[in-house]
Write a structure and sequence with these properties.
Length: 217
């Protein structure tokens, strides 16, 4: 198969941000999922994979990684790490082998490999690992609390997100843009519009920049 300049690879299409990317991306998509899901559109293909043993991926230039879970949902710190670090890195390495030059990843506010918080530390370790893979363009999103309809995804609502929605409604305009809860759709819109035109090297977008990019897209 020759490389399709419009084809994008997407991991994490069953999550809040990934679902929106699958809707917004203007070209064909190849989705990697851990369980079978309906094909979201006519120009998309769905491949069920084990991220611990990924097969060769279709040649492509663009890729989006929206993989992520919580320690509560994963069941343990080791299981969380397997998704938010090991699966992310495995997907990125497989993308690079498939010829991907533009790679976007959803991280989190506060990601730092030296953080005292396990969650933030794993996110930071994942970012550091991605930087070492050698993509021409690496776009990292560090959103604050994500807002979206988890019930539509068959996921239980998260107490922190319910609280965030209330805060966004009451105090949203008064909160600093960098920490204000952000709709998952805005994160997806920012990534889809920015990745094709991102400068060479690493670009990190925090919530305020994500919201600006989404608004101007």
């Amino acid at each position: 198969m020759s490389r399709d300049g419009n084809l994008a690879l997407l991991a994490g299409a069953t999550g809040l941000v990934g679902r929106e990317i699958a809707v917004l991306w203007p070209g064909p998509l190849h989705l990697l999922v851990r369980r079978a899901v309906p094909t979201p559109r006519a120009d998309a293909t769905v491949q069920v994979v084990d991220f611990a043993a990924l097969p060769a991926l279709p040649p492509a230039r663009m890729a989006f990684c929206a993989l992520g879970t919580t320690i509560k949902a994963a069941g343990s710190q080791a299981a969380f790490r397997a998704v938010d670090l090991e699966a992310v890195l495995a997907f990125a390495q497989a993308c690079r082998a498939a010829g991907v030059t533009h790679f976007a990843a959803v991280s989190a506010l506060g990601a730092n490999a030296r953080s005292g918080s396990f969650y933030s530390r794993v996110k930071g370790e994942a970012e550091d690992a991605l930087r070492g893979i050698g993509f021409e363009q690496l776009l990292i999103a560090r959103p604050s609390l994500l807002l979206g309809d988890r019930a539509a995804l068959g996921q239980p609502p998260r107490p922190g997100e319910r609280w965030g929605e209330r805060v966004a409604g009451w105090l949203g305009p008064l909160l600093p843009a960098g920490v204000r809860p952000i709709p998952a759709a805005a994160v997806a819109r920012a990534l889809v519009s920015t990745l094709p035109v991102a400068p060479r090297g690493v670009t990190v977008l925090h919530s305020a920049a994500l919201q600006r990019a989404a608004t101007s897209a």
